[in-house]
Write a structure and sequence with these properties.
The protein is mainly beta and 544 residues long. Strands 17, 20, 21, 24 and 27 form a five-stranded mixed sheet that branches. A five-stranded mixed sheet has the order 18-28-26-22-23, with no helix packed on it. It is flat. 27% of the residues are buried. Strand 31 (369-377) and strand 32 (385-393) form a beta hairpin. The chain has two helices and 46 strands. It folds into five domains: 2-125, Immunoglobulin-like, CATH 2.60.40; 128-230, Immunoglobulin-like; 235-333, Sandwich (Immunoglobulin-like), CATH 2.60.40.1930; 335-435, Immunoglobulin-like (Sandwich), CATH 2.60.40; 442-543, SOR catalytic domain (Immunoglobulin-like, Sandwich), CATH 2.60.40.730. The longest helix is centred in the N-terminal third of the chain and has 14 residues, at 2-15.
């Protein structure tokens, strides 16, 4: 309710309305709906305000207001929007004066109430640089990495669209090399650019182009444009691997390394420049990306897992070169690997763990059954101790996925993991550490079943109080407490129903007195972050 009223008050203040103009929700449903804020972003690009509401529908009566920064008076309101690549956008704003402006966004809430977001973004409305007519004279290649980039850079006045020549210099960047470029008196430029590096900052999806990045600045505003430079593909290349065979236990990772060279027009072989893309296919559907350094060398810096004996393929993934892909023979030996590990602290003070364990090419001499240890650490890094264990089948000669589950006593706050130690000739493995969810201890105090004794058929009232065991004895509100009764001479408890605790944690329920026995209350089926608790036993004698 408060959030909604604040939004209405804010709007009323901006509009200059009196308090009598406020429309407060008349129902609880309206109030609940009104406090749900929309999740959206706002930004400014070249005098356009862009609003992105994500997957939410566009709100009704959407408006954008502009104020001179530090003032409350609006200088413009925009109600028309067109589609943008992400969300909707205004037309380029035309304002009377240059300067800094605050941008407010307003729309109708779910019940038609006005909602206002002040200072959602800001607009630096200044004369700014603007690139136009950009082009490259020809494609680039490894053999001929130069091209002429030309175009115009002007100073654009957003108030009236006037253009003036850009003074001074701007920059052109390829790869890591930045070059200053000076336009002529009319703002035209034509500059020879040498592409630095095979990809030179190209986007991964654009496999037929590299880029030159142009940047100019005026009055604190930058204009940045990326001009694609077509690449002439296919320079002859070759890949030389450090090794064409790899061996390793299942669940571990291998490492690929090598160099790429390309054949120049004079017949010499030169190292590929920095940034040339390499792909390592560890399966028909899985490719790992690498890039060359300045010497043409590449090396895997990410996991290349040993999962089977299928060969890997190393190839270039670039328009700059063409080559014969190289195959790597893979020999995956016996080992294990955990995945899908979960751990949870239950309300009955037990840690439950689950995981899948892949066991591959189990060697002879391995026991048919092996222990998997449940381990605990206070910080998740050091001091690991075993608090429980479960077992999995490890029959020699087999490969399979074993489903691991087990329980261990609550070790206290901290982390747990699973570890299979393995044997001298069969690699073990360990899961990542998982932080246990936290729970608070509870107690049922002041428990009583009365009156004692009681005549048969008369009511018995069972009462108590459920609290946390902190110093304040914080009551648990709305928690379900179950009642149990055990007839005298019996060992079997009977469920007698349940009630919910009140605001002070107390609970109460009446039962007919049918026979002598013992009463007990239990906080068992816990959905909140608490441990279970039991009351004391209270014997009640039922007389004829």
């Amino acid at each position: 309710m408060n959030n909604r009223i604040n939004a209405v008050l804010c709007t009323a203040t901006v509009l200059g309305l009196g308090a009598t103009a406020l429309a407060v929700p008349t129902t609880a449903a309206q109030a609940a709906a009104a406090v749900q804020p929309r999740q959206f972003s706002a930004r400014v690009v070249h005098e356009r305000v862009i609003l992105d509401f994500g997957t939410e529908p566009l709100p009704k009566d959407l408006k954008v207001h502009l104020r001179k920064k530090g003032t409350t008076a609006r200088v413009a309101t925009v109600t028309g929007f067109t589609a943008a690549p992400e969300g909707v956008q205004t037309a380029p704003l035309k304002l009377a004066a240059l300067g800094e402006y605050s941008v407010d966004v307003e729309y109708d809430g779910p019940q038609g109430e006005p909602v206002s977001h002040k200072d959602k973004t800001s607009l630096n409305y200044q004369v700014r640089p603007s690139f136009t007519n950009l082009k490259a004279s020809k494609p680039v290649s490894l053999a001929d990495p130069q091209t002429v980039v030309s175009g115009d850079i002007k100073l654009y006045d957003p108030r009236n669209g006037a253009l003036k020549p850009y003074p001074g210099t701007f920059t052109a960047r390829t790869g890591t090399v930045t070059t200053p470029v000076a336009p002529d008196a009319q703002g035209h430029f034509a500059s020879k650019i040498t592409v630095n590096g095979a990809e030179s900052g190209a986007k991964a999806a654009d496999h037929d182009s590299t880029y030159v990045h142009l940047a100019g600045e005026a009055n604190g505003i930058k204009d940045q444009e990326s001009l694609p430079l077509p690449v002439t593909p296919g320079a002859a290349a070759r890949i030389t691997l450090d090794s064409s065979t790899l061996t390793g236990p299942f669940g571990t990772s291998g490492k690929i390394g090598g160099t790429v060279t390309w054949k120049a027009a004079d017949g010499t072989w030169k190292p590929a420049p920095a940034g040339l893309r390499i792909a390592v296919n560890t399966s028909p559907t899985e490719a790992k990306p690498l890039t060359t350094d300045g010497t043409g060398r590449f090396e895997g810096s990410f996991p290349l897992p040993f999962t089977d004996d299928a060969p890997w393929q190393v190839r270039t993934d670039s328009p700059w070169v063409s080559e014969t892909a190289q195959n790597v023979t893979v020999d995956t030996t016996g080992g294990t690997a955990f995945h899908e590990f979960t751990a949870q602290l239950y309300s009955y003070k037990v840690v439950g763990v689950r995981a899948k364990l892949d066991v591959v090419e189990i060697p002879s001499g391995t026991p048919r059954s092996s222990n998997v240890d449940i381990q605990y650490s206070a910080d998740g890094k050091t001091g690991w101790t075993t608090i429980g264990s479960t077992s999995v089948r490890t029959d020699p000669g087999y490969s399979r996925t074993e489903y691991v589950s087990g329980e261990a006593p609550d070790p206290g706050p901290g982390f747990v993991r699973l570890q299979y130690a393995g044997t001298a000739n069969f690699r073990g493995s360990v899961t990542p550490a998982v932080r246990l969810n936290e729970r608070k201890a509870t107690a049922i105090s002041e428990f009583n079943a009365a009156p004692e004794p009681v005549k048969k058929g008369q009511p018995i009232t069972v009462t108590g109080k459920l609290t946390e065991t902190d110093a304040a004895r914080t009551p648990l509100v709305g928690a379900t407490v179950h009642y149990y009764f055990r007839p005298a001479g019996s060992t079997k408890w009977q469920g007698m129903g349940s009630t919910r605790t009140l605001a002070d944690g107390t609970f109460s329920r009446k039962f007919p007195a049918n026979e002598t026995g013992t009463w007990n209350a239990r906080f068992l089926y816990v959905t909140s972050p608490h441990f279970f608790s039991l009351s004391r036993y209270d014997d009640v004698v039922v007389t004829p």
